[in-house]
Amino acid sequence: MKMILTFAAATAAIAIGVASVPGAVAAREAPPPPTEPRPFTLPQMTTYTLDNGMEVTLIPYGNVPKVTLLAAVRTGNIDDGGNVWLADLTGALMQKGAGGMDASQMAEAAAGMGGGISLSTGLNVTTADMDVLSADAPQAIGLVAQLLQQPDLKAEELEKVRADLLRNLAVAKSTPESIASEAFQGTIYPDHPYGRVYPTNEQLAGYTLDQVKAFHAQNFGAARTHLYVVGQYDEAGVREAVAKAFGSWRTGAAPTAMPASVNEEPKVVLIDRPGAPQSQVMIGQRVDKPGGDVAFKAMNTLLGGYFSSRITRNIREDKGFTYSPHGVFSDRVEGAHWLEEAAVTAEATGPAITEIYKEVRRMQDEPPSAGEVQGIKNYMNGTFVIGLASRGGMANSLATYDLLGLGADYLNSYVGKVSALTAADFQNAAKKELPINRMSVVVVGPLESVRPQLEKVTEIAGELPE
Questions:
Q1: Which of 18, 66, 99, 251 lies in the 20 to 30 Å Cα band around 290?
Q2: What element of type H or E holds 374?
Q3: What top-level branch of life does the organism fall under (predicted)?
Q4: The domain 268-463 is classified under which CATH number: 3.30.830.10, 3.40.50.150, 1.25.40.390, 3.40.50.2000?
């Protein structure tokens, strides 16, 4: 008790002393103005190409004796054709063993190097990555090569992997967000792999081991692969290990190019979930924009892309229609799109959609304030630099922007481009890229109560399906 009283008395004395100094409290409450953003430059890197067409980028980074390896292979769901998730099934089976080592042996080998090994399948790229001690970089390069080039693809593992994916599929197709996403992607990317989000159970259950082996043989090769080595390493040792592990890999096919068309007719899609307390709403469209356009990214961030965005303040903070609205600019290789999504209370479905349209129009009709513009520029530059502040962040950023055809030049110029944005850039991006009459709308919710609300939303009332 004595210690508590003494601490309380001291705290009170400190508080009285501070308060007695004129302006002291006010001075502590006012943060200093932000400094001008510093120019950002990537570390000096080296990129070279093996005789078989595989690219390698070496980036010295940091002072910790560790290195991150990221092998990006230009294949994924873009190569599924009509066999949705065949790429996912192939990637999952590859992780079960390679070069005669099963999954647990590969994990043990990676752990012995101070890290782990993983493989991930996406729309356009499949990545294998490791983060290991610098001394083990050559050995780790060999393990990554083994995973990509020599997967065992065993029949006895296929059904285990398939069962896992079937469970994932069942869970995904039971959630309103996934149901809405499937409908939205199918609407804005018709007849394209980007629009085929989920397979049917029958499709997934029917894929054979021969199909998996054929997918790997057709789509994994040196011409589609870029290896990034980031961290502290012995360059001569790394180059020798890369040549040994990847130099004899067959060249294989060039990456698949399948541009998605832009000017699709907008649609309103309604999916009934009787009795649901919420509606899942998605509003968006294809955007005919080159990857990496900072003005569009900035506009989207202010409109709906971060927690203090306009749409969030409107339908979450002011009106309480939703807890987690979010704007997305998906900068995809074969065609980008913009999307605002939110789970809103069923009784506020129509009003929420009206407010989203209202905020898009406000962005188009009037430039944002100087404070809003500066806040977004600070936010974008800050998150950009933070994203590059680790070996993994550096490797993933380089791989992403190389995939989009932007590369290191984009990263080096990013801070300067963002810092130069004006209020007019925000407004012009919204006016040019987000015409209201091109937006598609998906609503998953209790249509008996929601449809009458949608009939009052001017922008879509005439487009509601029967």
A1: 251
A2: helix 370-387
A3: Bacteria
A4: 3.30.830.10
Residue carrying structure tokens 């230009």: 74
DSSP 3-state percent helix, strand, coil across the chain (nearest 5)? 50, 15, 30
Per-domain residue ranges for the chain? 46-246, 268-463
Give the tens place of pLDDT for each residue, 158-205.
999 999 999 999 999 999 999 999 999 999 999 999 999 999 999 999
Q: In terms of CATH architecture, what is 46-246? A: 2-Layer Sandwich (3.30)
The CA-based angle 367-370-375, given to 5 degrees, is: 110
Rounded Cα gap, residues 384 and 375, in angstroms: 14
Judge if 46-246 and 268-463 fold alike in CATH terms: yes
Extract the tokens encoding 106. 């590969």
pLDDT tens for residues 113-152? 999 999 999 999 999 999 999 999 999 999 999 999 999 9
Query: Are the beta carbons of 255 and 224 closer than 8 angstroms?
Result: yes
Rounded CA separation 351/309 (Å) = 18
> Which pair of structure tokens corresponds to residue 139?
């050995």
Residue with tokens 């029958």: 202
| Beta carbons of 195 and 189 less than 8 angstroms apart | yes
Structure tokens at 447: 């249509």
Residue with tokens 């977004």: 376
Residue in this structure with the two tokens 């069962």, named with its chain if needed: 163
